[in-house]
Amino acid sequence: MVNQNSVGMRGDATNWDEDSYRNSILQEREIQSGTIFRTVFAPSSKPNPDTIVVASSDGSVASYSISSCISPALPLGLGKNLIQKDLAGLLVAEPDCCLQGHDGPAYDVQFYGSGEDSLLLSCGDDGRIRGWRWKDVTKSDAHNPARGNQMKPVLDLMNPQHKGPWGSLHPIPENNAIAVDTQGGSIFAAAGDSCAYCWDVEKCKIKLIFKGHSDYLHCIVARNSSNQIITGSEDGTARIWDCRSGKCTKVIVPEKDENSRDLMSCVGCIALDASESWLACGRGRSLSIWNLPSCEQISSIFTHAPIQDVIYDENQLSILAVGAEPLLRRFDINGMMLSQIQCAPQSVFSVSLHPSGVAAVAGYGGVVDVISQFGSHLCTFRRVPV
C-alpha cells in the first residue's frame, strides 16, 4: 500500500519545468568552471583602485566596479553589481561593461597609455590583439553587457599564418601574453609558434619577429630602459632580446626542482622590478631571482605547487607569487617567505597590484579576490559568463 503522507511530501509535480531545471544546472556549472587568466587595475586619478578588468576563458573582457562589490552590508540585490549568490555562497557580480574580445579564451589584458586616453588591449586563443578606447568603455551608455558586445575595437591585429608542406596552412598561432612600450609605439606578443612579435601600433604592422625558442611562449615583459624584451617559453628557458636587431642576447635557464620531474618545466611567468634590474622567473614549482646587469641567479625558491604568476611589489620591496593552490605568497629578494594569505580561487592564474598596495588574484571558477595592503579581503566575487 502506498503511504499517502509520503506522496504529499513529494510535492506537486504538475508545473515541473524540466528544461528550466536543466538550464539552471548547466548555467551553474558554466559559472563555476570558467577561468580568469588575467586581471588588471584600470587607470584612475583616485588613490584607491576603482575598476578592475578581467580576461576570461569564454573570450570576454569585462570591467567591474570594486566599490560596488564592497557592499556586503546591502540587502541582496540592492548592490549595483551584486546580483545573487551562487551555490558556494560567493557573490556573483554583474560587469559594468563586457566586451566579447576573442573567439576562444582571452589570455591577457593590458593598458596602453595612461588615463582616459589609454587603450584597453587584450589577446587570446584566436591569434588576435584587440584594443578599445578606455574612455569609450567607461561611458555611461557602455555600462551594459549588450552595449559592450557591440563595441568595435579601434585596433585589431592578427598573427601571420605560416605555410606548411605542399602549400598547406598552419593554424594561426595564439597570443598567450602581451607587453607594451608606449614611447616606442610598440606592442609585444608572446605567441604559440615559439616566436615573439613586435607590432607598430600606429601602422598596425609587424616591425620585428623574435625567433630562437624551440617551443611556444607563455609570457613576455618589456624592458624599455634597455630597449629589450624578455620572454619565457615551454622549452624551459627565458631569453633576453634586443629590440633594435631582433637578436637574442642572453639565454637564462632558471633552476628546476629536480625532485619533481613529473611537473612541468616551462618558464610560465616572469616579472621585472621598476628599476628593470631584477627578474623573477617561475619554472614549475621553482621561483628564481636574477640580477640582470650581472646575469646571475641570486636566489631560488621552491613551492608545493607550480607557480603561475608573479609580480614585484615596489612598496614593500618584495615579490608576490601565486600558483596551483589557493595561496598568495610574499617573498623577499633573497627567497625568504614574508607572508602567506589564503585566497578564494583554488588555482590562481593572475596576480595584479595597484600602486596603493591593493592586490587582486583570480583564476579557476571565474573568482576574483581583492586583498588590501594589510592582508584583509576587501571583496570576493565570481564573474557572470557571457
Can you describe this structure?
With 386 residues, this protein is mainly β. It has 5 helices and 30 strands. It has helices at 4-10, 18-33, 66-69, 134-137, 145-149, and strands at 36-41, 51-56, 60-65, 82-85, 91-93, 97-100, 106-112, 119-124, 128-133, 155-158, 175-181, 186-191, 196-200, 205-210, 217-223, 228-233, 238-242, 248-252, 267-272, 278-283, 286-291, 296-302, 307-313, 318-323, 325-331, 337-342, 348-353, 359-363, 367-371, 377-383.
Q: What's the helical proportion of residues?
A: under 10%
Low-confidence stretches: 1-9, 72-82
Estimated share of beta-strand residues: 35-45%
Major β-sheet annotation = 6 strands, mixed
Sheet with the most strands: spatial strand order: 4-5-30-29-28-27
How does the SSE layout of this entry go?
Layout lengths: L3 H7 L7 H16 L2 E6 L9 E6 L3 E6 H4 L12 E4 L5 E3 L3 E4 L5 E7 L6 E6 L3 E6 H4 L7 H5 L5 E4 L16 E7 L4 E6 L4 E5 L4 E6 L6 E7 L4 E6 L4 E5 L5 E5 L14 E6 L5 E6 L2 E6 L4 E7 L4 E7 L4 E6 L1 E7 L5 E6 L5 E6 L5 E5 L3 E5 L5 E7 L3
Parallel strand pairs: 5-30
Antiparallel strand pairs: 1-2, 2-3, 3-6, 4-5, 7-8, 8-9, 9-10, 11-12, 12-13, 13-14, 15-16, 16-17, 17-18, 19-20, 20-21, 21-22, 23-24, 24-25, 25-26, 27-28, 28-29, 29-30
